[in-house]
Amino acid sequence: MMRCFVLSFTLFFLLILHTPSSTSSSLLPLCNHHDNSNLLYFKNSFPIDNSLYRDGRCSSYSNKIASWKNGTDCCHWDGVTCDTSSGHVIGLDLSCSMLEGPFDPNSTLFHLTHLQQLNLAFNDFHNSPIHPQIGDLVNLSHLNLSSSSFSGDIPSTISHLSKLLSLDLSDDYELRLDESTWSKIIANTTNLKELVLDLIDMSSIKETSLSLLMNFSSSLLSLSLRNTGLHGKFPSGILALPNLQELRLSKNEELKGELPKSNNWSTPLRILDLTGTAFSGQIPDSIGHLKSLNQLFLWYCKFDGMIPLSLWNLTQLTELHLSRNTLHGEIPSLLSNLKHLTILDLSYNSFGGQLPSSLLDLTQLSVLDISSNLFIGPIPSKNATLSKLHTLDLHNNSINGTIPDWCYSLTSLTLLDLSMNQLTGPISKFYIGLQNLINLDLSNNKIHGKIPNWFRDNLLHTWKDLVFLDLSFNKLQGDLPIPPYGIEVFSVTNNNFTGHISSTFCNASSLDVLILSHNHLSGTIPQCLLGASPFLSILDLQVNNFHGSIPTNFSQGSELQTIKLNHNQLEGVLPKSLASCTQLEVLDVAENNIEDVFPNWLQTLPALQVLSLRANKFHGTITTSFNAKHPFPKLRIFDVSNNKFGGPLPTSLFENFQGMKELSDSTHHRPALSYMNSSFSKYTDSVVVIIKGQSMELVRILTIFTTIDLSNNMFNGEIPHVIGELTSLIGLNLSHNQISGIIPQTLGNLTSLEWLDLSWNQLEGEIPVSLTNLNFLAVLNLSENHLEGMIPTGKQFNTFENDSYIGNPMLCGFPLSKSCKNDEEQPPSSILHQKEKPLFGWKSVAAGYGCGMVFGMILGRLFIKTARPLWLARLLCGYTY
Ligand SMILES: *[C@@H]1O[C@H](CO)[C@@H](O)[C@H](O)[C@H]1NC(C)=O
Ligand SMILES: *[C@@H]1O[C@H](CO)[C@@H](O)[C@H](O)[C@H]1NC(C)=O
Ligand SMILES: *[C@@H]1O[C@H](CO)[C@@H](O)[C@H](O)[C@H]1NC(C)=O
Ligand SMILES: *[C@@H]1O[C@H](CO)[C@@H](O)[C@H](O)[C@H]1NC(C)=O
Ligand SMILES: *[C@@H]1O[C@H](CO)[C@@H](O)[C@H](O)[C@H]1NC(C)=O
Ligand SMILES: *[C@@H]1O[C@H](CO)[C@@H](O)[C@H](O)[C@H]1NC(C)=O
Ligand SMILES: *[C@@H]1O[C@H](CO)[C@@H](O)[C@H](O)[C@H]1NC(C)=O
Ligand SMILES: *[C@@H]1O[C@H](CO)[C@@H](O)[C@H](O)[C@H]1NC(C)=O
Ligand SMILES: *[C@@H]1O[C@H](CO)[C@@H](O)[C@H](O)[C@H]1NC(C)=O
Ligand SMILES: *[C@@H]1O[C@H](CO)[C@@H](O)[C@H](O)[C@H]1NC(C)=O
């Protein structure tokens, strides 16, 4: 009796010990033995390798099949669910299981025909097709193959899965779904509640088959077809399906549609995402029926009109994204109804009026972006407790008044962009603990006064994450703020800062962009600046009063693309180490006191496009050195004017400027207009060029802008014929030198030329008739030479006036009053009568680009400054001056 008790006690104890891990495997094997071995064969078709690639898609990865062992009960394996009575495997969740390798078409997985739920998401099946055998698993209600690197056509047998409630094939971006499979799925899986096909290629599906979606009728709860290439008109009836809770159609640029105007909406709708579609029309009043709506994403669509008042009744909204439409109207104070709002993005529309102060009642806001609208008036200044706000972007409006203190006291703020408004006043003296700032942009306002000490202290000690600070285009004065360690972009251009660059600047070792231009800074440029910032790509110190020499420690591996030191009082020589800056595109040292010979060692820089040495004390001859095959291969703007260069014109350079030859066609079609762009998109490379004695700042440099300016030096000898090969030249200025000989015929090959100045030289002979080929020529100055004979006529030459030729006593013919001896021709009685012919070139420019652009950029200012025939501009562009 006692033994019996002990035995049964032991048994009981054992039983407890084994629960729950292997009770049934040792005592009551549950798993169907066919399913058991099918699973083991499936396991064996994948390598066991814990070192497999894992990415951030899954919160955790685990190699579930590693626990599958022969001889144990499969119903207790990781990821396996059995039917408790039959022992059949009915659920298999191998998501995030690091399965990797091709999927066998004869996989024993397809024998598990009792399966109801199969999830293989987030594995890597090496672009295997989804095999047609998937259609054998007819008991499936849930199939999830998301993000598993399946590819090819989705097999039509998938439509055999008529019991499906949920189908997710998303993010297998090499999968295709064709028209007939689509129709079959819709016809047979009539109980589907959830369909997720994001990123699958569905572009072959026609508009007519899109409307089949209506067949899902009452079952559908969630439909997600993002970025699938769908096009045509989306059936708006979908938005009336009675149970629909989520509809996501974003990033289908050619998918059109409208929101239903009738009250016939899917009232349970919680999420509506139409981002980046071609949905258009107005947001109807009826949207007010969506009482459950949490998230409304309508950005990058084509909606217009005003926001209906009813929208402000959707009190459950947490996210409202209306950015980048053409919506207008004012934002009513009703806005404060949306108490749960965390994201309000109205940016890039035409909303106007004043900002309602009820905006500040939205205490849950984390993102407030109303940038690029037409808002006016002050930033509301009642006490705000937006303690969760991390992004406040009001840039590009017409907001005025001062920056209220609350903007500086938002504890969670990481981005504050108030740029491009009319804000005035000094930066507040008062602040509370703005600590997490990453991006601070107050540029393009009218903020004046000194930078307060709390701001300087925060810069250096508190804002440890700050990477972007832009205070440019204000009226700030006093000492420069010091850029903190860790900052990448620091711009204070166009203020009234004084003082010098202290050596503490050199602690900012992550600087990528440093722009101190257009201030009243003085002192020297500290040598440590370059050594300290290996990532520096833009160094812009132009238009200040810096003196001393240029730092010499430019180093190998430098990332500098733009160096602008022009318009200072720098002296000494150009440091040879500049040749290490192999990414350099713009080097501008104009208007300093640099005393050096021509830096032909810069010729190896492969990317250099703009070189300006204007107005310094450079001297000697300009030669290339022998070791470079193509010196200055990309150079497009070459300005050495106003120096003391002498000797012959640099023929060897003209022969080699590849960047000025690229465009050679006589059809007057130019490449698409584009601007030089820099690593920092907000920065535009500008350069000053002198045209007809007027300096003109090209605030953005067109990549077709190609000029050579050698004026005001002491060059002598003849103009080399090879200059005619620089066929993309737009401007050529050789004036004020001692150049002799004739004007070469080949200049007539420079068919892009818009201004040509050869004045104040000793040129002789006749003006070549070939110059009449220059259909774009707007400015011609040949004055003060020894030219003789008849001035050519026709085309642009009918538009030049006396001042193009004065000081050449032996020239005759139109427009000079002196007629040529055998001149039988009548000078054109009226230019207007000839407008058709000579204007061929101009017209095609205007027609090709639209007037605003080209005339605005290159020619508009030229016209105004040179008072060239304005009728021409009016004729072409309807300009009125
Ligand atoms: C499992 O083990 C049994 C007995 O050792 C063996 O016969 C069977 O082939 C094994 N199954 C698999 C799938 O390896
Ligand atoms: C799949 O099975 C069939 C028939 O049993 C066989 O012919 C085929 O080679 C197998 N395919 C693979 C990839 O094993
Ligand atoms: C589907 O599942 C049921 C219940 O488990 C089963 O009776 C039936 O045989 C299964 N269908 C197929 C084709 O295996
Ligand atoms: C629809 O589903 C049933 C049941 O699985 C199947 O027999 C039939 O072939 C399917 N039809 C299509 C067109 O796939
Ligand atoms: C598919 O599985 C993944 C991974 O478990 C999951 O994140 C996703 O929500 C599933 N899809 C559906 C529609 O349930
Ligand atoms: C907002 O809701 C209130 C209460 O349900 C209702 O009286 C009012 O008419 C609604 N306003 C709009 C513009 O739909
Ligand atoms: C804002 O709050 C501060 C301190 O909490 C208080 O001194 C000030 O009077 C308040 N201003 C307004 C307009 O309520
Ligand atoms: C702000 O602008 C509005 C008009 O846009 C003007 O009426 C108002 O006086 C301005 N306020 C300030 C402080 O400049
Ligand atoms: C710039 O600051 C100086 C004093 O630092 C002042 O005299 C001058 O008026 C200021 N210029 C402008 C345009 O504010
Ligand atoms: C350049 O001009 C000269 C003289 O006008 C002409 O003979 C030559 O063919 C032209 N070359 C090209 C490439 O157009």
Automatic annotation (TrEMBL):
One Pfam family per UniProt: LRR_1
SMART domains (alphabetical): LRR_TYP (SM00369)
Transmembrane segments: 840-864
Main location: membrane
Keywords: Cell membrane, Glycoprotein, Leucine-rich repeat, Membrane, Receptor, Repeat, Signal, Transmembrane, Transmembrane helix
Signal peptide: 1-25
Name assigned to this protein: Leucine-rich repeat-containing N-terminal plant-type domain-containing protein
